[in-house]
């Protein structure tokens, strides 16, 4: 190969290398332009500080978020900037000191709350070369957090006030509300008391509908301005009910009082009228009651001039009004007028936590009334708690009073309880009332196993009669014994 050919080949290789280097330089310049564009146009603020604490670069967003101009910080020592009050704190100085990523929250001149995160950039010897600070506006987030904290504080305060109000109402009205269900019902009653909406109370006989009605009245502004008037729609003959509700004018009918008579609506003016057993209201009076609710007025028997009334109506029933509407036994329009706010009080068997407290409450009340010092034995208490109480609170109160009066000593045993509470009547349920299927199955299973164990000598015999395995009988019998023994 000649010298010229050698030189020519060398020059070709050199030119190829130079072209590749040029391409890399162009790529690097393009990447740098992209990075510069990102740096300048980033919505978040970016600041770069060297390992001496000197600011070497900032982007426009940093100026916008902090209110500090780049002329104030470029080439300046961060220590001096903090001393002069340009910044309250310096995340870059913390990074240089701790040698790890650090975050602080700082309020700028603009009033914006910013979160500043400093990240160390290391050289090949694992020494900090620069610190990159990312600055993000968290003013709205910070404001929302403060609002959340204030809301939580208010919620806690309101909850404390509600609990205290509930406690006072319970004490003043001799209410027992140990169960979550009853506590929620009392809370709802207190809220309803603040408005004048019509209320419909639902629940079996004896659950405490009248007591709840009095809570609503006593907790309302009407307690100071008007009376609480109760009328039982089912206890008054239909022929007399209209005159009792709406009153009558002189000479309205034979035997009417000479000067007429005020009805319950007028007596309850500015107060509360409790219409108990509303389901028993005759159809013709349903129409008249609907008019009173809609028009706030009525015409007394024998009268011609409408009487305006300002009364809060609370109705109650142990019947299924909706079903009665479907059967045509109760006016649909009246049902919806009454059913503005409905409160359903569960039967005692659905809130067993209240039973021990009710027993204690009525025992203390009867002891105080008659000067007794009586109490139930553990076995008697267990039987009282286990009973399903189809008559609810009213039945419980009556049986406790009867037991206290008829018992001879101060200790009332299991055998001195009313015959209604005999063993064979425990855990029975009323098929006239719908209860969850799993509850019904368990009650029936419990009763059958107990009766079979009383009749037969071994679990093997019981299993044979019930047509289940012996292991099933033994397991379930133990379960029910454990549950009974855990009762107070």
UniProtKB/TrEMBL annotation:
One of its GO terms (molecular function) is transferase activity. It holds the Pfam family Sigma54_activat. Residues 175-405 form the Sigma-54 factor interaction domain. Residues 11-38 form a coiled coil. Keywords: Aromatic hydrocarbons catabolism, ATP-binding, Coiled coil, Nucleotide-binding, Transcription, Transcription regulation, Transferase. Transmembrane segments: none annotated. Residues 89-150 form the PAC domain. GO terms for biological process: regulation of DNA-templated transcription. Residues 31-83 form the PAS domain. SUPFAM superfamilies: Homeodomain-like (SSF46689), P-loop containing nucleoside triphosphate hydrolases (SSF52540), PYP-like sensor domain (PAS domain) (SSF55785). NCBIfam families: sensory_box. PANTHER family: C4-DICARBOXYLATE TRANSPORT TRANSCRIPTIONAL REGULATORY PROTEIN DCTD, TRANSCRIPTIONAL REGULATORY PROTEIN. This is HTH-type transcriptional regulatory protein TyrR. It comes from Acididesulfobacillus acetoxydans.
